[in-house]
Amino acid sequence: MTAMHAVGIDVGSTNVKVALIDEEGALVGAAGRPLSTSTAGDRVGQDADELWDSVRSAVREVTAVAPAAASDVATVGVCSQYSSLVPVDADGGALAPVKLYLDGRGAGRCWEILERHPEAFDTWVRHHGIPPVGGGLSLAHLLHFQHDEPEVHARTAAHLEVMDLVNLRLTGRVAATQCTMFASQLVDNRSVSTAEYDGELLELSGVDAATLPPLIPLDGVHGQLLDDVADDLGLPAGVEVRAGMNDTQAGAFATGALADPGRCGLMIGTTAVLIQSMPGPGADLDREVLAMPAPLRGRYVVMAENGIAGRAVERALELLSPAGRTGDDHFSELTDALAATAPGAGGVLFLPWLAGSMSPASASTMRGGFLGMTLSTERADLLRATVEGVARNLRWLLPAVQDLSGTTAVEVVLAGGAARAAGVPQVLADVLDRPVRVLDRPELAAAAAVGRVALARRRGDDPAGGPLHTGVTLQPEADATAVHDH
């Protein structure tokens, strides 16, 4: 059989990452590009064309460095952060900035659904899992565009999540799946494999169905690379592009959570997410965790968004570090601080809720800070406290995840950019009191995962059954865990 390679593309909130994967699932090459975000009050957005240019630039870098491998690419997989919507016209052009998940507009339109239809809350919980109770999710974005930006709505051919926007630019086809449209709250998730919107949810919401992308099978082919796009990216003509997924779903593959119910995936980038597999639908609305359809027929994963995490640590580093330091300097300083300080950070506590609290207790007005500083507190103590604060927030969430999944997590598999800082995985192991396995090149985990999934599906293999590409495993240290227990 001819050797096959794959390209995986992960569009996060702050960076695009691209991975070139060989037929064994090993990483051949990688590249990344930063993304810029504009914020004004409750408006949070990104330029769709700049985002696409960042994807193109990163792919071109990877294929230029490894042209022989690039010439054997047979398939492309794409994932992205989600609940970030962009309206496109009939030609696929963006009509407005991507409305990110941090954009709170449209919340009032969701509450209006409940005012019009008292039965809506229970209907949404039964059919989808998440009631229509606020902003940030794509249902609110859809309603905002429709009612509050009518000039945009009038020209909109489809509203797309970011992964589906990238697939549109790659293939020329407008399409989505049950998985990519999860945050629209318009698909019945009581079974996994549907390719239709829920008529009852559509009617209750009042969303204009003509602006929704058609749904395709969640494990299907989105389309083939357009010839001019293939030439631009340095890839062969006719390469298949698989149906997209969101970054939590990609994380379930990357961390092996779909292969082992006792394995808990942990993705720490801008935000932190805990992931465990589930045999069926379910929700714990009191603690804001629920089952999300996985990109495997009949399978689910726990959706447990813990909120701002790596970005909270980065922000503390930006404020506490000397002027002129770069991102690499920050990682170095954080590593040094963790090595120079003891668990507990001298009694300093860091509250990581710089943009509100999410699961297991949602509070948009919650705010962060440092507690317990004394005259002997050093900057290194504050830096350690930021990492410990993020870890304790995850410890607060873990019981809710285990209760919903019905399985105790015996180990944690760590992915995401935060894992690059030496010492962070040990803090997580100590606070969570579980072994923490760190994926090889953890910052590329989602991009590599969607590439591997695309290859497996191309070959007809089980995409959840491949080996984990891990580096070190950290065991919890009893004395440190006792400090955090206290």
Describe the protein.
The chain is of the alpha+beta class and 486 residues long. The chain has helices at 48-65, 67-70, 107-116, 120-127, 138-148, 150-155, 162-171, 199-205, 227-233, 247-254, 310-320, 327-340, 379-405, 424-432, 445-459, 478-485; strands at residues 5-11, 15-21, 27-34, 38-40, 43-46, 73-80, 85-88, 98-99, 158-161, 221-224, 240-242, 245-246, 263-268, 271-275, 277-278, 283-284, 289-293, 300-308, 349-351, 369-371, 411-415, 436-439, 470-474. The strands form 5 sheets. Strands 13, 14, 15, 16, 17, 18, 21, 22 and 23 form a 9-stranded mixed sheet that branches. Strands 1, 2, 3, 6, 10, 11 and 12 form a 7-stranded mixed sheet that branches. The chain has a 3-stranded antiparallel sheet with strand order 4-5-8. Strand 4 (38-40) and strand 5 form a beta hairpin. Helix 12 (327-340) packs across helix 13 (379-405). The termini are far apart.
The tally of helices reads: 16
Spatial extent as radius of gyration:
22 Å
How many DSSP E strands?
A: 23
Q: Name the helicity range.
A: 25-40%
Q: Largest sheet, if any?
A: 9 strands, mixed
End-to-end separation in angstroms reads 58 Å
Alpha-beta content class: alpha+beta
TL;DR of this structure?
The protein is α+β, with helices and mostly antiparallel strands. Helices cover 36% and strands 22% of the residues.
Name a few traits of the molecule.
486 residues; alpha+beta; 7-stranded mixed beta sheet; 23 strands
